[in-house]
Amino acid sequence: MKFLDKKGKLFGKINIIDLCVIIIVIILIAGAVYKFKFMDKTSNNVAMQPITYTVKIEKVRDYALNNIEIGDTLFDKTSGNAIGTITNVESEPATDYVIMTDGSIVKGSVENRINIILTVEAEAVENSSGCYVNRTYELLRGTQKKFMTKYFECDGYINSIQE
């Protein structure tokens, strides 16, 4: 008995293209079962717990501070998912390193710019591989992300995470 016959059927029973489609469907189903049943960060049986983290936005104009209010929802700009509620808004003068005429480097203030520190509360899952807001958005201290609220978009980084 031949492996493929003249009509392209495997062992004379099933078309090779049909077999490939069946294998792909089985792989997709197995991947979905693995993702939603066995992965900790997306598993429904892992309890969500409240966390607080801070986001630092550097060197923005002061009108940006007027567009952020306590109670606003913070979103990830890339995915569009809500990643917490702003509970506190602080500002400080922006600073940067400046090269002086004598060649020395000093830290000085940046004119017309401020740093904004947002305190955000969210529900998250914490496991051995990290902290995940809404079971999918990974929070890592020091990572730079694109954030937005209803009235404001910016680049910032996660400054600290407290459980």
In short:
The protein is α+β, with helices and mostly antiparallel strands and 163 residues long. 17% of the residues lie in helices and 51% in strands. It contains two helices and ten strands.
Task: Summarize the structure in words.
The chain is α+β, with helices and mostly antiparallel strands and 163 residues long. It folds into 2 domains: 9-38; 47-162. 17% of the residues lie in helices and 51% in strands. The relative contact order is 0.21. The mean pLDDT is 84.
Helix content: 10-25%
Q: How many alpha or pi helices?
A: 2
Largest sheet: 6 strands, antiparallel, barrel
Strand content: over 45%
Return residue spans where pLDDT drops below 50 for at least 5 consecutive residues. none
- Give average pLDDT, whole number: 84
Classify the secondary structure makeup into a structural class. Answer: alpha+beta
What string, H for helix and E for strand, traces the elements in order? EEHEHEEEEEEE
The total domain count is 2
As an assembly, this protein is: single chain
**Cα distance spanning the termini:** 65 Å
The backbone outline, from C-alpha atoms, is elongated
Rg is 25 Å
**How are the strands ordered across the major sheet?**
3-6-5-4-9-10
Strand runs, count = 10
